[in-house]
UniProtKB/TrEMBL annotation:
One of its GO terms (cellular component) is cytosol. SUPFAM superfamilies: cAMP-binding domain-like. This is Crp family transcriptional regulator. Pfam families: cNMP_binding. InterPro entries: cNMP-bd_dom, cNMP-bd_dom_sf, Env_Response_Regulators, RmlC-like_jellyroll. Residues 10-133 form the Cyclic nucleotide-binding domain. SMART domains: cNMP.
């Protein structure tokens, strides 16, 4: 199954006559990952935009002692690494791990720049994606810096009424399983 580029949030409302020629010349590629495989490693250089076409991933941080924290779980279609690609220090501060079988479209930084320059809809979509990710991260910082474990748990349960896996929930809340 081919990745449906125009179903991706980055390309919603774009002018295909402007975007298609760039996509045809782009050195982008499709990559498949099995459940549990690392798509990106924490502290590795981010050279490409990752577009999640199929599957689900988790975004996870690990500290020096090996303690893990799941920042988010994302499902296709979604854009990964948008905030890191053009950063002064363009490394992944997190690892991206396949939760299920995944298919990604990997787009080079140069190709993304050409797409942004060619169509203002792609530019607007990219800025919207960056802003949404920034807003999400701000809410996560607030959640951990300003809330108690019980208030974080209540907030989590309001958004996710059925807890499937206690260990995963503990990772998401940044606590040990026994603390829950």
């Amino acid at each position: 199954m081919e990745c449906e580029f125009y179903d991706m949030p980055l390309f919603r409302g774009c002018d295909r006559t402007l975007v298609d020629p760039i996509l045809e010349k782009s050195p982008s590629r499709i990559a498949n990952y099995r459940k549990g495989e690392f798509i990106a490693m924490q502290n590795s250089v981010c050279r490409s935009l990752l577009l999640l076409c199929e599957g689900s991933v988790r975004v996870q941080m690990t500290n020096e002692e090996g303690r893990e924290f799941t920042l988010d779980t994302l499902a296709a279609p979604d854009v990964l690494a948008s905030a890191f690609l053009f950063a002064t220090e363009n490394t992944f501060p997190v690892s991206v791990i396949a939760n299920t079988e995944c298919r990604l479209w990997i787009v080079s930084r140069e190709s993304l720049l050409a797409l942004i320059e060619s169509d203002t809809a792609v530019l607007r979509n990219f800025l919207s994606i960056l802003s949404d990710h920034s807003r999400f991260l701000t809410s996560r910082v607030q959640q951990f810096a300003l809330q108690t474990l019980s208030s974080r748990l209540i907030g989590y349960l309001e958004k996710n009424p059925a807890v499937q896996n206690l260990q995963e929930t503990a990772f998401i809340l940044g606590v040990t399983r026994p603390s829950l």
